[in-house]
Design goal:
By secondary structure, the protein is an alpha+beta fold. The protein has a domain of 92 residues: Roll (Thiol Ester Dehydrase, Chain A). Helices cover 25% and strands 35% of the residues. The strands form two sheets. Strands 2-4-5-6-3 form a five-stranded antiparallel beta sheet, covered by helices on one side. It has a two-stranded parallel sheet with strand order 1-7.
């Protein structure tokens, strides 16, 4: 097992860019997760629901964000991870994933996490992880 990462308030990893999101990303995630809602693969259905095109599954980009945080802090050190979906992710969008330590209490860091598209938040969330004091 890896030792906990040293972390202090204000620490952040380099952001990660993913995309542009393609129909292939969405189809692969649908197959893996079993989410075959027509919003994710039928442009006409998505249009009738008020979207300009199909919408990526929220769990897809939440999973990308979880992977980003666990790559940084170590999955074995994560204790909590929660997200709130703020806006849809559409075909062609490029996700920018980021995280920042906002507090450290003993050996537990509180981390704000987010995914944005062109500066617009699509996911806001938080994580708690065991860290070594900075």
């Amino acid at each position: 097992m890896r030792a906990p990462r040293r972390a202090g308030v204000g620490d952040r990893p380099a952001s990660r860019r993913i995309g542009p999101i393609t129909q292939t990303h969405i189809v692969r995630f649908a197959g893996a997760g079993g989410d075959f809602n027509r919003l994710h693969h039928d442009p006409g259905f998505a249009s009738k629901a008020g979207f300009p095109n199909v919408v990526a599954m929220g769990q897809m980009h939440a999973g990308m964000l979880a992977g980003f945080v666990s790559d940084w802090l170590g999955v074995e050190h994560l204790r909590e991870f929660e997200v709130r979906f703020v806006a849809p992710v559409l075909l062609g969008d490029v996700l920018e994933l980021s995280a920042e330590v906002v507090s450290v209490d003993g050996s537990v860091a509180e981390v704000d996490v987010k995914a944005t598209v062109g500066g617009r938040a699509v996911i806001a969330g938080s994580a708690r992880a065991v860290v070594a004091p900075a």
